Each structure stands twice: as C-alpha cells, then as structure tokens.
Amino acid sequence: MRFSIRLGEIKNEQFQKALDYFSLGKLLNAKAIPFGNFGQNVFLTTDKGEYVFRGKPHYSWQFKNEKLMTDLLHKKTKTPVAYPYLINENKIIFGWGYAISPKLKGKQIIDEKTRKELTQKDWKELAKAYGQNLAEMHSLIYEYPGKYTDNYEGIKPFSPSYSSWIIDSINHLLEKSLSHNNKTTKEDANWVQKIIRDGKEALNIPFVPSFVMQDYQQSNTLADKINGKWYVVGVFDFMESYFGDYEADLPRMRAQLIDQNKKLADIFLKTYLLIKKPRAGFEKRYPIYVILDRLLVWEWLQRNNNQLINKNSLKEWCEKYTQLDYS
C-alpha cells in the first residue's frame, strides 16, 4: 500500500519486521495519518497496542534528536510525550531507518471536525493549556545552549555564542528567501536588520538554557477534556528541538492564535508569563525571535512556491506578530 509520497509503497510484511525488531506484537492494521506536511507517519495497530511508525528521516540525526528530547522530557518533566521512542537505523527493511512510539490518546485540534465542535470557552481553556504545557516543557534545562548533531557526543554548543547563531540563522534564511522570488524585498531586509540592531543588546543578556521545541503549534499537540477541563495530553515532533532561550518558543503558537483570535493569543502568553516570568529585555528580544520563527515558515513557502500566504512581502505578513500588546 502507498501511504504517502515520501514513504511510498510499504507492505504489511515490512511493517511486521519493523515491529518484530522491538517485539511489539502481530500487525492487525496499518493506517495513513491525514495530518502533517511531510507524510512520515503511519498508525500501526497490533495485538499488543497502538503505535506511530515514523519513517524516512529528513536528516541522519532526526530520529536520534527526537529520541534524546523525548527521553529527557519524559524523565525530567511532566510533559506528555510518546515514550519510549524506539529507533532502528538499519536500512535493510525499508531502505531507510525508522522510529516507533506509542500512539498518544487525545484529540487532534487541527482536525476540522473537532474544530467545528469547539466553543469559545473551549478555545480559551485550550489557549491557557497551551501556555501551561509550554512552561512545563521549558522546565527542562541544560548546562549550555546547543543542539544535537552527528559526529558529536551529546549536545554541541553553539559557537561562538547563542545570540550569534540566532542572528546567523536569520540572515541565512533571509538570503535564501531573497533568492527564491520577488516576494522578499529590500525593504524587508532593511526592516529585519533594524529589528536585529534594536534587540541585539537584549539578545546577549545571560539566561538559563532550556529546551526549545521550535515547532510548538496545534498540529504537534493533542488535547482533551479531563474532568470538564481542557489539557494538553500529547506533544510530538521534536526534530528541530534544541537548548537555548525559552522565549524563542513563544512566537509560533502565539502567531497561530493571533490568526484565529487575538484574545486567545493574549491568554496563551499571559498564562505562560505567569509561570515563567519575563526576563529583562524581553520586549526587545521577542521581535527577533518572531523574525526567526516566521522566516523558517516564509522561506519554506517561497522555496516551494507555496501560495498559502497571500501577502506581498515578508514585512506585510510578519509585522503584526512582532507587536507585544497582550493587556
């Protein structure tokens, strides 16, 4: 059966071999997952339980980083993650490595059927739950800022500094965006550089390095009502996760909620900041982190000629997200 463009044809016999490697039971059913941008995942049901199969990694380090972050979040926080995260890098079965983890319970809030059933009260509770869960994830700290990479034992420190890595990442994405088409303008580039200049001093203020998911949004979470109240009951997809300034994780979910309803974005941010008090310079740093987050999305869309964003320039699309009015 063909499960996605990325995974291609996979036979039940292959899934069974993958399950056998971890003694996960006899395959009863394999089902394509209708969510996600890249088609890496398949639901597997066996006589021992329900699992998520994840195949054909984007990078050689993807599954190893996801396993590391899942293990740490499970052991050192109360974050609801799919543990254990099992990986097999052997390419004999599929031609590429794979990962298998338990299927988490909960509702996919990005499911249109689910969204139609949600009331405004539900959404306010969800916005609060998203803020609480993110703060819990950020209780995972590390000795220094860095990220997992191949050919390095453990977390590789950012060099020469975390702030330089952030700025270099922004400039790299900006240059790539400029090369794709005329949607990214000179005015955009000047605007980005001004935001960097205005916030650079604040970016260098010391912080305690913590877990940064970098892709914290509704599509990578599950939620459900427990005793009549909404909670985040699952978080997944830690491919891009690293250790750095936790403030860098706020823009993606906040931008998503701004697009729905500004009041929800305010609830999310205020809930989070009640738990994780803002550090000195937050108002100056935040726009830089927004630019990084939005450029990650913008560059990908321009590279793939995706017309999802109906705006004439980066600044026109992005500027509203940099504003920190959450009274």
UniProtKB/TrEMBL annotation:
Pfam families the record matches: APH
InterPro entries to which the protein is assigned, alphabetical: AGP_Transferase, Aminoglycoside_PTrfase, Kinase-like_dom_sf
Coiled coil: none
Signal peptide: none
Molecular function per GO: transferase activity
Keywords assigned: Transferase
Highest taxon above the source species: Bacteria
Domain Aminoglycoside phosphotransferase: 32-253
PANTHER family: AMINOGLYCOSIDE PHOSPHOTRANSFERASE-RELATED-RELATED
Protein name from the UniProt record: Phosphotransferase enzyme family domain protein
